[in-house]
Write a structure and sequence with these properties.
Helix content is about 65%, strand content about 0%. By secondary structure, the protein is mainly alpha-helical. It has one domain. A two-stranded antiparallel sheet has the order 1-2. A hairpin with a 2-residue loop joins strand 1 and strand 2. The chain is globular. It starts with a helix and ends in a 10-residue tail after the last helix. About 5% of the residues have low confidence.
């Protein structure tokens, strides 16, 4: 069953990030079938009691919060609150699938062996996405998912439609790679055995995957994606170093090497200069000289946020219905917005517009509690493994939260499912069961 969940996490990224109704419904179908199979096997082997993991007993309040949010979406659909019933029903199915995925991961990956396997699956999938996106860009083939790319030529997108969504996915998987690298450190002196393990063991595979993923992230040329990755790495890395006095020098060298080697050396040959130019040329307002516009703004997402403020005031408590943003926003954009926006390019504002305060509040509490559990695991200095996995979940969650200020990664099923997985890992980091032997990767 656990391997089927891993296959699902790999699959959900492939068909355009599952950001199409047909691929999104496949994700819903597979998740529902796997949940039903898990429940059936559980009841079959234990008629008197439904067995759950120790971690789930801790995570039960978080799961309930997810269910409450989906119950509210259901009420929006049933009571006619939604301005787009079909989209709200679709979002309800997706939301229930995320909740079931959280339930499955908490219960099926509650041992150290399984948790390591889950982390490695995310890392390998991220590396494959980055390699595919980079190869398509450098070769000039520019394919997405068995079809020619219709947009973002010259930028790595992997099998996603949007480069920002590939960047969002890579932020989370890179965090998993860094965290697992820290979790598997041994503290041994540099001996022949330790050097061979570094070159040929699990850490070498993780290190190579990190290099590939960082190249993919840079070649996506996503401004906020790269910024969110760097900010979260520095912030979480600073906490990790400051709270671990015994191995402060060793941990500092590991994290500094990641920044210097990946960001400043390797990425220099794969589009770092182009990314820098794109960041420097960003202009949110028209440049006016003597009353004449000499250079028009090249970024209008801030105008979208401003124009949707009246929409936020319309139904602040109950919202307009999950998935209804594209329908309700069309009457609000001004003359300065000539493009069609199906999302708000700000996950927080879109959730508030669609879910309202009632539906958004459980999700906020769920996320904050996940961050708290990740931080608790990070601070467990006596267990390098738990601390490293806590680092991964904290950095991954924080990175996508920062990126969500200017994009809609959490509206993409592949990224939302991976975010849900990281929130489950945040609990598992501290409350998983240690096994006698570690999987050899």
């Amino acid at each position: 069953m656990a391997y089927a969940i891993l296959a699902l996490l790999v699959w959900v990224t492939l068909p355009l990030g599952s950001n199409r109704p047909w691929s999104g419904m496949l994700f819903v179908l597979f998740t529902t079938l796997l949940s039903g199979a898990w429940a059936w096997f559980n009841l079959r082997h234990s008629v008197t009691e439904f067995k759950v993991s120790r971690a789930f007993k801790v995570a039960r309040p978080l799961f309930i919060l997810l269910v409450i949010s989906q119950c509210w979406v259901c009420l929006q659909w049933l009571l006619g609150i939604s301005q787009n019933n079909s989209q709200t029903f679709y979002y309800l199915l997706l939301g229930c699938s995320y909740s079931l995925l959280y339930l499955l991961i908490i219960n099926l990956f509650a041992t150290r062996n399984k948790l390591t396997l889950l982390m490695m699956t995310l890392i390998v999938t991220g590396a494959l996405q980055a390699f595919y996106g980079t190869a398509m860009t450098l070769s000039g083939l520019e394919w997405s998912f068995f079809a020619d790319k219709t947009s973002y030529q010259g930028h790595a997108t992997g099998t996603f439609v949007n480069r920002n969504h590939l960047a969002g996915y890579l932020e989370m998987t890179i965090a998993c790679g860094i965290g697992l690298l820290l979790a598997l450190r041994t503290g041994e002196c540099f001996t022949l055995r330790s050097v061979l393990d570094l070159l040929m063991g699990p850490k070498a595979k993780i290190r190579l995957s990190l290099v590939i993923m960082v190249i993919g992230l840079v070649m996506s040329h996503s401004r906020m994606g790269n910024s969110a990755f760097f900010i979260s790495l520095v912030f979480v890395g600073s906490i990790f170093i400051a709270t671990n006095k015994k191995d402060r020098i060793r941990n500092s060298l590991i994290l500094v090497s990641l920044i210097l080697i990946d960001m400043l050396v390797i990425s220099q040959y794969f589009g770092l200069e182009q990314l820098k130019d794109r960041l420097m040329s960003t202009q949110f307002s028209d440049q006016v000289v003597n009353g004449e516009v000499v250079q028009k703004a090249n970024e209008v997402r801030d105008n979208v946020v401003i124009s949707m403020l009246p929409l936020l005031e319309k139904h602040p408590l109950v919202g307009n219905g999950a998935g209804s943003f594209e329908s309700v926003y069309q009457q609000y954009p001004g003359d300065d917005i000539r493009l069609h926006f199906d999302h708000a390019h700000n996950d927080y504002l879109q959730f508030l517009v669609e879910f309202g305060v009632i539906g958004l509040l459980p999700l906020i509490i769920f996320t904050l509690m996940s961050l708290w559990y990740a931080l608790q695991a990070l601070l467990m200095r006596k267990s390098w493994y738990r601390s490293g996995i806590g680092f991964a979940s904290l950095m991954g969650i924080l990175s996508i939260l920062i990126h969500s200020l200017t994009d809609f990664n959490l509206q993409i099923p592949a990224n939302a499912a991976t975010f849900t997985t990281l929130c489950a890992i945040a609990v598992l980091a501290k409350y998983h069961v240690k096994t006698k032997k570690r999987n050899k990767i």
